[in-house]
Specification:
Elements: H1 11-32, H2 35-42, H3 47-74, H4 81-99, H5 105-119, H6 122-132, H7 135-166, H8 171-190, H9 211-226, H10 232-238, H11 243-271, H12 276-294, H13 301-315, H14 318-326, H15 331-359, H16 362-389
Length: 390
C-alpha cells in the first residue's frame, strides 16, 4: 500500500532524498581517500601491524553494513522513515568529527564499525523512494539515487586529498562533519514526511518470488564494479606501466568507467519499464559477462579501458533494475535485504580479486566473474519464468 504523502510520482521528494545521499557518500569518500595515510601517521605499531590495522579499518565496515541493512528496513514498521534517515545523518556527522581527533587505532576501528552499521541506513532512502515513485518511474528514480551515491564516491576523494594536503589531516573530518549537518538540514526541509509502513510487510525477509536470486545478482553487479582497483597496479604493470605513468593511467581508467557506470545505469533504467525489466536484466548481465572475459584479450591501456567502460555501463543498471523488479511488494526489511547485497559485493570484490590473483592469475579471475554472472542471471530468469507460469 502506497503512502499518501504525495502524488503517484513525487520527483521533488525523490531528488531531495537522492541529493541527501549524495552528500553523505561525498563525506564518506572525502575521509576515505586519505584514511590509509592518516592511519600511518597516528599508528604506534610496526609497519606490518599497521598494514593489518589498515585493512580492518578500511574494509570491515562494509560487512557490518551488509548485516545492518535489513535491520534498518525493518525499523520502518515502528519508526517514521524520515526520522530514521535524519538520525543516521546526525550520528554519522558526530562520528566524522570524533575520528578526526582519534589517535587510537582500536578506537578508530570501533568508530568505523559503528559507521558501517549506520551505512545500512541507505536502505531507508531506497524505501522512501519506492514509496513515492510510480511503477513506471521507479527504476529510473532508483537509478538516480544510486548515481547520486556514485557521484559522491567519485567527487569526494580529490576534495579530501586536497584538504589533507593543504590544510591538515583533521580538516576533511571537520569538513565532513559540517557538510553532514548541512545535508541533514536540507533533508529536514525538503524531504516530505511519511508514516510507518504496515508491519506485515516489514517483519521478515521474503525469500520467494526469486528474491534470493535478485540478491545474488546485486552482489555480482557490485563485485563487477569494485574488484578492479585493488589489482589495477598489477594489470598496468603487465602493460609496461609503473610509477607516475601507472598512477595517472589508473586515475584515467577509474574516472572513465565510473562515468559510464553512471550514464549506463541512468539511461538503461529510464528506458526500461514494466514487463521489460527482467529481459533487460538478463541482457545487461550476459553482455557484462562477455565483456568481463574480453578484458583478458586487451593488449593495451586504451583497449582495456574501452572494454571496462562498456562493461560497467551495462552491469551498473542491474542494481536499480533488480530493486525496481521487487521493491513495490517487499516492505522495508525486504528492500534492506536486497540492499545488503550491495555492501557484501563492495567488500567481496577486492577480496576475491586479490585472493584469486595471488593463487592463480587474471584469466582465472575474469572467467570466474563471467561464469558466476551468467549462471546467476540464468537461474534468475528460469525462476522468474516458473513463477509466471505458476
Amino acid at each position: 500500500m502506497k503512502s499518501n504523502i504525495s502524488a503517484p510520482d513525487d520527483f521533488k521528494g525523490v531528488f531531495s532524498i537522492a541529493m541527501s545521499q549524495f552528500g553523505l557518500a561525498f563525506c564518506f569518500n572525502v575521509v576515505m581517500s586519505f584514511m590509509p595515510f592518516y592511519i600511518i601517521r597516528v599508528s604506534p605499531y610496526t609497519a606490518h601491524e599497521t598494514i593489518l590495522w589498515t585493512g580492518l579499518i578500511m574494509g570491515l565496515n562494509s560487512f557490518i553494513a551488509a548485516l545492518a541493512a535489513p535491520f534498518w528496513g525493518g525499523l520502518t514498521a515502528t519508526i517514521r522513515p524520515k526520522a530514521l534517515f535524519q538520525w543516521a545523518f546526525f550520528f554519522n556527522a558526530i562520528i566524522f568529527l570524533l575520528m578526526g581527533f582519534t589517535a587510537n587505532l582500536p578506537l578508530l576501528l570501533g568508530l568505523r564499525l559503528i559507521q558501517g552499521g549506520l551505512g545500512g541506513a541507505s536502505t531507508i532512502g531506497l524505501f522512501m523512494i519506492s514509496e513515492i515513485s510510480s511503477r513506471e518511474r521507479l527504476a529510473g528514480n532508483l537509478s538516480l539515487y544510486q548515481n547520486s551515491m556514485t557521484a559522491g564516491q567519485l567527487l569526494g576523494p580529490p576534495v579530501g586529498a586536497y584538504l589533507a594536503a593543504h590544510i591538515g589531516y583533521r580538516s576533511p573530518f571537520v569538513f565532513s562533519f559540517v557538510l553532514s549537518g548541512v545535508t541533514l538540514l536540507l533533508c529536514h526541509i525538503y524531504v516530505a514526511d511519511m508514516g510507518k509502513k504496515q508491519t506485515y510487510q516489514s517483519e521478515k525477509i521474503p525469500l520467494g518470488r526469486g528474491v534470493l536470486w535478485g540478491w545474488a545478482l546485486i552482489l555480482i553487479a557490485a563485485i563487477h564494479l569494485t574488484f578492479l582497483p585493488s589489482i589495477l597496479p598489477h594489470i598496468l604493470d603487465g602493460f609496461g606501466l609503473s610509477g607516475e605513468k601507472a598512477l595517472k593511467s589508473a586515475g584515467f581508467i577509474m574516472m572513465g568507467y565510473t562515468a559510464t557506470a553512471i550514464a549506463g545505469s541512468y539511461l538503461i533504467s529510464r528506458l526500461t519499464h514494466g514487463t521489460k525489466i527482467v529481459r533487460t536484466i538478463v541482457g545487461v548481465c550476459l553482455t557484462a559477462a562477455i565483456l568481463q572475459a574480453l578484458l583478458f584479450v586487451s593488449r593495451g591501456v586504451v583497449s582495456f579501458t574501452v572494454i571496462r567502460m562498456l562493461q560497467t555501463g551495462a552491469i551498473a543498471a542491474v542494481l536499480p533494475l533488480v530493486m525496481a523488479n521487487f521493491a513495490s511488494g517487499l516492505g522495508g526489511t525486504g528492500i534492506g535485504f536486497l540492499n545488503s547485497a550491495r555492501f557484501a559485493g563492495n567488500a567481496s570484490g577486492p577480496l576475491m580479486a586479490t585472493t584469486v590473483l595471488a593463487g592463480s592469475g587474471l584469466l582465472t579471475l575474469y572467467l570466474l566473474i563471467s561464469v558466476l554472472t551468467a549462471g546467476t542471471v540464468l537461474a534468475f530468469w528460469i525462476t522468474n519464468k516458473k513463477i509466471k507460469t505458476a
